[in-house]
Amino acid sequence: MEKDGAPHAAGRRGFITTVAMVGGLIAGYGHGLYRFFEYLVPLKRTRKTGLFVGTLNDIPVGRSLTVHDPQGHTIAIARTSESAENPAAGFKALSSRCPHLGCNVHWESGSQQFVCPCHNGIFDKNGVALSGPPAAEGKNLREYALTVDAKRGWVFVEVTVGSEI
Ligand code: FES
Q1: Is 12 found in the same domain as 54?
Q2: What is the Å distance from ligand 1's center to 129 Cα?
Q3: Range list of β-strands (E), the chain
């Protein structure tokens, strides 16, 4: 003969074991599914930020400079005019990477053009392809947003930081 409560205790243990097993399965498969979808659709952990490139005095009208963003991309910044109301309007920040085969372009202040030496690709001051293979393919230089803190005269170019995982 069984003691009172023994069947109930065995039933409770079975119930708790079943709940723990189902919970473990849900957690395990749930985590696996999460990783699977993360693999299919990678999370982007990037954000935009302003990269300080210099002061207005560092870049006089007609001059340019080259900076590198945190991901190693080269950016050519040219100052083509001066605007007291909107200092950023006088700048152009373009990728130095030619959209044809990736050579570095440079700014020629005399002609006010970006020139790619590899296949003589020519771009205007806005990065629009004028001649050479980039023009034939309709590929312009990538443009970066640029801001100026007018109070301090600081120039920033908007770049992406972080990486996709
Ligand atoms: S790589 Fe620039 S024109 Fe070919």
Answers
A1: no
A2: 11
A3: 44-55, 64-68, 74-79, 91-95, 106-108, 113-116, 121-123, 129-131, 143-144, 146-149, 154-164
**Ligand 1 proximity of 132 Cβ (cutoff 6 Å):** yes
What separation in angstroms does the CA of 135 have from each of 103, 110, 142? 15, 21, 14
Q: Which domain range does residue 109 map to?
A: 45-164
| The one-letter amino acid at 89 | A
**pLDDT tens column, 106-118:** 888 889 888 999 9
Same domain, 62 and 16: no
- Structural domain count, the chain: 2
Query: What integer pLDDT is reported at residue 42 of this predicted model?
Result: 65
Q: Is the pTM of this model over 0.85?
A: no
The residue whose CA has the least distance to atom 1 of ligand 1 is 101
CA 22 vs. chain centroid, Å, equals 42
Atom of ligand 1 nearest to the CA of 120: 3
CA atoms within 13 A on the CB side of 42: 6
Identify the CATH number of the domain in which residue 129 sits: 2.102.10.10
